[in-house]
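testing teh design pipeline on a random one, pls ignore if ur not involved
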């Protein structure tokens, strides 16, 4: 059996051994309207290395149970669902439940844990995640209450439960962040780079550079959900980290594994930084941090689209909201034609 991950573990079952375990995923890769969002979550967790079972990252779903569940319906039983956002987000036309009901609790509770403060508005959510949207355009307006899908006191109880579970398990939530690229910037970058996948990878790369700079001195694994058909990433990683050596550990149809190793000459003090990066198909099904990154990116996009629809709905009250995808985006552009100038239409429509 091949070793999937290459972080060092010199002593099997070493009780003090920890791993910085990060995940990156996107939301909004395919729509014509709205931002492209790429999220990252980062944890420090205890890890065991069993030589019989090979080296595997910690199972945060197990460590944080029963507070955390990977089933969406678990929220109905008072637990916080962490899973691929596509499994949690309810339809926007749901009449009995808020569409974010299974998406908001995990992101907002974890954000409160990371930032150490209560989040009360959608603007505070964005600021806490490091998101910068165009406040002067269709994403502006007054702050809206957060959370929107559950009472604030219930979120506080879930956050307290998550804090206790994390403490018992020895799991530290280190970071929760998102980059949102609005339409104008997306189109500019697309014109420069030529293909959408390269625009997306630039945002992934920003998170990778941050992880490497911040936690590269520890054992660090980053699991990235593989987007599109790309299988080989060594050259792209080399461009991101010209100061480091890139070692290809495995490249297959389902996963690609690399070691980013800073050269001794580049190391400022002490040991050179290093990072293991895994690009995996459906990583958000296998890696807790990637699932949470998926949820974070999705919630940011949902908040952005709520502001988008509020902005244009104020100008044309009968205008039906849109999520920005496919046929519905085309429908929305037809319905909104009377209030859009050519310049505004060009600014809000993504070219790929």
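output:
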């Amino acid at each position: 059996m091949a070793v999937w991950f290459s972080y060092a573990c010199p002593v099997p079952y070493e009780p003090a051994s920890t791993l910085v375990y990060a995940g990156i995923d996107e939301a909004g890769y395919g729509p014509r309207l709205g931002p492209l969002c790429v999220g990252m979550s980062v944890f420090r967790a205890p890890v065991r290395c069993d030589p019989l079972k090979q080296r595997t990252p910690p199972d945060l779903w197990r460590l944080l149970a029963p507070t955390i569940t990977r089933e969406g319906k678990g929220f109905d039983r008072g637990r916080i669902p962490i899973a691929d956002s596509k499994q949690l987000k309810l339809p926007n036309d749901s009449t009995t439940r808020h569409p974010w009901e299974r998406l908001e609790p995990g992101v907002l509770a974890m954000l409160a844990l990371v930032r150490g403060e209560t989040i009360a508005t959608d603007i505070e959510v964005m600021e806490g995640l490091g998101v910068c949207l165009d406040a002067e355009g269709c994403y502006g307006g007054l702050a809206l209450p957060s959370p929107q899908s559950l009472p604030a006191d219930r979120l506080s109880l879930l956050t307290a439960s998550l804090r206790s579970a994390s403490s018992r398990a020895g799991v530290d939530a280190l970071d929760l962040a998102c980059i949102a690229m609005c339409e104008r910037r997306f189109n500019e970058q697309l014109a420069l780079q030529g293909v959408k996948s390269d625009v997306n990878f630039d945002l992934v790369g920003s998170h990778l550079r941050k992880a490497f700079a911040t936690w590269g001195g520890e054992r660090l694994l980053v699991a990235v959900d593989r987007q599109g058909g790309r299988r080989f990433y060594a050259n792209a990683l080399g461009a991101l980290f010209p100061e480091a050596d890139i070692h290809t550990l495995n490249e297959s149809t389902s996963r690609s594994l690399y070691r980013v190793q800073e050269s001794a000459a580049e190391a400022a003090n002490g040991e050179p930084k290093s990072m293991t990066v895994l690009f995996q198909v459906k990583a958000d099904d296998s890696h807790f941090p990637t699932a949470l990154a998926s949820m974070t990116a999705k919630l940011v996009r949902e908040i952005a689209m709520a502001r988008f629809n509020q902005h244009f709905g104020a100008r044309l009250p009968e205008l039906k909201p849109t999520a920005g995808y496919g046929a519905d985006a085309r429908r929305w552009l037809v319905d909104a034609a009377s209030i859009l100038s050519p310049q505004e239409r060009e600014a809000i429509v993504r070219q790929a």
